[in-house]
Design brief:
Length: 301
């Protein structure tokens, strides 16, 4: 392969990003993460006078070895290797190379148990939101949905008023890959969110916005803002900062349901993981699923 110029590398990376998002139905956040890791590879190639579009096994092995020496965690090395595998396959798909190289196997991914909160800590965080203000009620509604429904931050930011169906006891969310899933909307979660919508959200809605969660100025919230809210309310509740990571409420939701006796197949469906069948993803919420949620989750009462 002839050495590639910077312009060609940039254009190829841009096409790779489109491929990740459109052909593989990944989210914008996943696309950015892939391109960020690809930029690390490109920078390494530049320092070592190598062509970034020549994803040769020896170069990848050396790249990952040096990254490990620099102190990157095993999970980070695994992700970098996976991105380069995808990039190599894309280069063949895009016609840049004749065939994808056979890269060295990545090995087992490092297993790390997620941090979770206990029910007392969850309640303290909820109590910390109760300051009688529209923003406090908004924050509590967010915490309730994140913990009580296991929703991702991106799903919460994308929730619109019309996505909630109180009469049917469900709500619709757009998850990874822009895939729609149906989530139980019942019990304490529904009562708190309905109160926020009815009595406090109007004070934040300056322009008739469609989004459920609004900023002080009436704009749609971003994922980073939700993380700031959790951090702020968690610290006020006396929860250590190191345990207030972005996914802690979703992890806690899953763990508490399992401890309550829910089977993994039902939990998998509630979390919206990719192994759910197409029919289950895009049709109505099965009543048995709502019954399971109502039986096992502490916020369903």
């Amino acid at each position: 392969m002839n050495p590639s110029g910077s312009g060609e590398v940039e254009r190829t990376a841009e096409r790779f990003g489109d491929y990740i998002k459109l052909e593989r139905a990944c989210s914008e956040n996943t696309k950015r993460a892939y391109l960020s890791d690809l930029a690390i590879w490109t920078a390494w190639c530049s320092r070592n006078s190598r062509d970034p579009l020549d994803v040769a096994p020896d170069a990848v092995s050396r790249f990952l070895m040096e990254a490990g020496i620099e102190g990157r965690k095993k999970s980070s090395l695994h992700r970098l290797g996976a991105v380069l595998r995808s990039f190599a396959k894309f280069l063949q798909y895009d016609g840049v190379t004749d065939k994808a190289p056979r890269l060295v196997p990545l090995g087992a991914r490092e297993e790390k148990l997620p941090e979770i909160l206990n029910e007392n800590e969850i309640q303290r965080i909820i109590n910390a939101c109760e300051d009688g203000t529209p923003l406090g009620k908004r924050d509590r509604a967010y915490i309730e949905l994140a913990y009580g429904a296991g929703m991702r931050a991106s799903e919460l930011c994308g929730l619109r008023l019309r996505d909630l169906d109180p009469g049917g006891g469900i709500l619709y969310a757009r998850g990874k890959g822009d895939k729609e899933r149906v989530i139980p909307y019942i019990g304490a979660v529904r009562r708190v969110v309905d109160e926020y919508i009815r009595e406090y959200r109007p004070a934040l809605d300056k322009k008739g916005a469609e989004w459920l969660f609004l900023s002080r100025s009436g704009r749609q919230l971003h994922r980073e803002t939700l993380w700031v809210i959790l951090h702020k309310r968690g610290l006020a509740a006396g929860v250590p900062a190191k345990r207030l990571h972005p996914h802690v409420l979703r992890h806690t939701f899953a763990t508490h349901l399992l401890r309550g006796g829910m089977d993994q197949r039902t939990l998998q469906e509630l979390l919206g993981h990719s192994s759910i069948t197409t029919t289950e993803k895009y049709t109505h919420l099965d009543l048995n699923l709502r019954d399971y949620y109502d039986k096992y989750h502490p916020r369903a009462k």
